Amino acid sequence: MSQVVFKMPDLGEGTVEAEIVAWRTQPGAQVKEDDVIVEVMTDKAAVEVPSPVSGRVVSISGQPGDKVAVGSPLIVFETGSGVETARSQPHPAPGARGLSSAAAAAPSPRAPTSAHVPASPQAPASPQAAASRGTSAPAASGRVMTSPANRRRAREAGIDLAQLRGSGPGGRIVTADLAAAGTGIGTGTGTGTGTGAGGGAVAVGAVGTGPRAEAAQVASRVAGAVPPVEGTGSADRTEVKVIGLRRVIAERMTEAKRTIPHFAYVEEVDVTELETLRLHLNASLSKVAPSAGAVAAARPALTYLPFIVIALTRALESFPQCNATYDATRGVLIRHRPVHVGIATQTPDGLKVPVVRNAQALTLHELAREIAAVSERARTNKSTREELSGSTITVTSLGKLGGIVSTPVINLPEVAIIGINKAVERPVVRDGAIVVRRMMNLSSSFDHRFVDGYDAAAMIQLLKEHLELPATMFIP
Amino acid sequence: MASMNMVQALNSAMDIMLGRDPSVVLMGEDIGYFGGVFRATEGLQRKYGEHRVLDTPIAEGGIVATAIGMGVNGLRPVAEIQFADYIYPGFDQIVSELARIRYRSAGEFHAPITIRTPCGGGIRGGQTHSQSPEGIFTHVSGLKVVMPSNPFDAKGLLITSIEDDDPVVFFEPKRLYNGPFDGDPHKPAIPWSTHPKGQVEEGYYRVPLGLAEIVRPGSQLTLITYGTMVHVAVAAAEAMKVDAEIIDVRSLVPLDSDTLCTSVRKTGRCIVAHEATRFSGFGAELLSIVQEECFWDLEAPIQRVAGWDTPYPHAFEWEYFPGQRRIALAIRAVLESA
Fold this sequence. Notes:
The structure holds two protein chains of two kinds.
Chain A: E1 2-7, E2 17-23, E3 30-31, E4 36-41, E5 46-50, E6 55-60, E7 67-69, E8 73-79, E9 114-118, H1 127-132, H2 148-157, H3 175-180, H4 200-207, H5 212-223, E10 233-234, E11 237-238, H6 244-259, E12 262-270, H7 272-288, H8 293-298, H9 304-318, E13 324-327, E14 332-335, E15 341-343, E16 345-347, E17 350-352, E18 355-356, H10 364-379, E19 393-397, E20 416-420, E21 424-430, E22 433-447, H11 453-468
Parallel strand pairs in A: 15-19, 19-20
Antiparallel strand pairs in A: 1-8, 1-9, 2-4, 2-7, 3-6, 4-5, 6-8, 10-11, 12-22, 13-14, 15-18, 16-17, 20-22, 21-22
Helix pairs in contact in A: 2-5, 4-5, 9-10, 9-11
Chain B: E1 2-3, H1 6-20, E2 24-28, H2 44-48, E3 53-55, H3 60-72, E4 76-80, H4 91-97, H5 101-104, E5 114-119, H6 134-138, E6 144-146, H7 151-163, E7 168-173, E8 199-200, E9 213-216, E10 221-225, H8 229-240, E11 244-248, E12 251-253, H9 257-267, E13 270-277, H10 282-294, E14 303-307, H11 317-320, H12 324-336
Parallel strand pairs in B: 2-3, 2-4, 4-5, 5-7, 6-7, 10-11, 10-13, 13-14
Antiparallel strand pairs in B: 1-8, 6-12, 9-11
Helix pairs in contact in B: 1-7, 3-4, 8-12, 9-10
């Protein structure tokens, strides 16, 4: 018998940690090689991690919502008797399927690390052992590691330290982790803030000479901290832990809104001609369909979306500054020749942005098919990681729920997002007379750091021109 | 005010007390005619006479025992033990008699006795002239234990000790007799005249026992020390540009734990430093008190800087001496933890 410690693999370029979304196995269970053992979420994608070996699960480290550092022990297996289970290339990450992403960065998967230790009482297979070796894996059981001062701050703020993740050496909870937990606890200790390092009300309670317990009670009442325990709540109140895809969405939205000065621009587009063309093409499609299934499969019914994407690729030829991504670490704006269009897609898990690559090279029907395909894979958790990253501009459409105006949030690190509102017939004035036309608004946002308002407006006007005179988008 | 080194300041204190109080007598080996091996009592026998400044045989047990007898009969003896390393023949008298005389006699007798003794290394004294045994005496109930780090405190503390009606063991860090010492033996010696604490009032004044002094205010960490190490600590903090609060304990018993703990509650980080050996040293007591009183304010484990647990080596004096580098390591350790 021997034990295999499987460590959190590096699931993509630059990944330093991954969040456990759900365990698919449990201690005591038998697993076969390639069985999915755990779903994890990195900053870039959700991934199903397959088992590197066949055997019995001895222990697992971390609960859903916990972040585990790459290289930290994730699960311990006991493999069959006498068999040396050395596996120098354990399980390549490419085998893992990406489930979702909120964007960017070309993945360069590396093989996950795994270590083999003989089964013995001393086998450092427990999470505690991992923590003591200096990883930042939170101890799944046992004591939380932090300084006495942080214990006091947590107690006074009503925080359950066991719910926090330590970023210090050995997974220790440092003052910054408390601050990150949104407690209002500053990180200025050691520079003179002293006893009053808690939030305002906390400090007052703690400075005095009165009983600390009393101060702590007062402080926790005043601070109003909510213990972030999953599954608590009553009929009036349900608490949902923000983990997995929802956490990634939250983080990316916050980052986009915090770092990008959004410039919003709304224009109305007369899509009467486009609608005529679309209906014509769909009608001719249905005539072909009954007798030629293959053609039907290749030519799904057309929505506005493929037309808009084609028009967009044409408009971007004149406005390369809008088909760009910003590398903030290097301070470089990268203009892209190919147009990789992100298609904002609502899925049961939340927003995902699958990517149609080289949209500028696809025909109308190819685009329609590709858009449908990537969206469907996103909705059914079948997207590859590549499919969920690398877009250069994003289109977001709510279809029938499109409304009149929206203010889309730019999909970092892109610099523009095109929002499509609902197309409806409206009375408009043409040549001095009121006529009924099918009108649709485009609500777009631009990164004002890199796209000037003038250029943004001109780009949308060109897009409008293509959509109002649909023939122009097909003329090179 | 006059510029004095620590020897002159101590001499001044004894001179003043001999003049003020006819019950004060000095006694010890070579302190009278010769004026003391470090010159602390120079000129005092000539000034006050052989009945006030007594040369004794080389017998520390006898010195302490005689002092006790004089003390309980109304005198106020100041006994010098030539080196702290020589104090052990008198240890039984100090522990079994001197420290307990008030308790044993239910308050009928008391022993207003000061035992002065030079301590510490840094003068190539080897294992028999370099020891810092203060921790042995702080462990004995009934003794007060003092160690100044500069001439001004030395004089004021010695006057207070002599006037105290109970026994005080007064340790004098001999490396500081002639000047402050930052722990670097390769630098030219600096005289006390360059240091503010080398300016000493010529007349009578007291520095109370049981009162620590914040030598250098700071916010990042608290460095608790005494004796020679005060100067080493200040130099280390300044070299590292660390905003350390450095506290000179001055009076080990009674201990000003309020000042220590107030500081640690402020900074959340603490280092304890002394020249004496580490194991069961006085630093362990300081650390315990800080831990008991300030546990919930600690950001990092308390660090100890001390001499190695060996006799003070002659050849490797500067490897043994806990200099700036060892303090710097402790500073780094307490600041790295969060």
